[in-house]
Design a protein that fits this description.
The protein is mainly α and 193 residues long. The chain contains ten helices and no strands. Helix 1 packs across helix 2 and helix 1 packs across helix 4. The longest helix is centred in the first third of the chain and has 30 residues. About 3% of the residues have low confidence.
Length: 193
């Protein structure tokens, strides 16, 4: 009985910490770094300042939580990509995930990165590298299967394609996909008689 109670409490604390980090991310994207105070984060998250301090000792720790929240989706995304067999479908899944991550509108990721303390920037950089490596693997598979241009350099081109995807807002994902397909898709093979 005690073990279940401890697990339930840990799960609740984890959900609460994630909810606070998600609220801080929303606040950061909507109002910018100057709006991030413990009082505004607590208010936005709908918790008391005392509760906020129980999870995060300062704004820097909250921002590290934001970076960890963003990075936590890596495993689920990698699993979803692995579930797709077709590299074209895998690439589309990655582009859609990156383009819709965080529901950004006109706020550039550099604003987020600039507000993060060094340890949070490291977490975010590791996340970005994992996504770039995943994308490079998809490009390599597509080249091997003749689906993507052989001239691609996967580890060089993956971050560029992800940058294009990140620049697309949720309403322009299809346009980003069109551009990416124009860049990476191999020309159709002509049948020889």
């Amino acid at each position: 009985m005690t073990d279940r109670w401890v697990l339930a409490r840990q799960e609740h604390r984890s959900r609460q910490a994630d909810a606070i980090a998600a609220s801080a991310l929303t606040l950061l994207l909507e109002q910018g770094a100057p709006a991030l105070t413990m009082a505004t984060i607590a208010s936005t998250a709908g918790v008391s300042r005392q509760t906020l301090y129980r999870y995060y000792p300062d704004v820097g720790a909250v921002l590290t939580g934001v970076a960890e929240l963003i990075a936590a989706h890596d495993t689920a995304l990698a699993d979803a990509v692995a579930d797709e067999e077709d590299p074209v479908a895998q690439l589309e899944l990655l582009v859609r995930a990156v383009a819709t991550a965080g529901g950004h509108e006109d706020h550039a990721p550099p604003e987020l990165r600039g507000a993060l303390p060094p340890e949070a920037r490291e977490v975010l950089s590791s996340h970005e590298q994992r996504i770039a490596d995943l994308t490079a693997g998809v490009l390599e598979a597509g080249i091997d299967q003749g689906r993507f241009h052989g001239e691609l350099t996967p580890h060089v081109d993956a971050p560029l394609l992800l940058g294009l995807a990140a620049a697309a807002d949720a309403g322009r994902v299809d346009r980003a996909l069109t551009l990416i397909h124009q860049l990476v898709d191999a020309p159709p093979q002509e049948d020889t008689p």
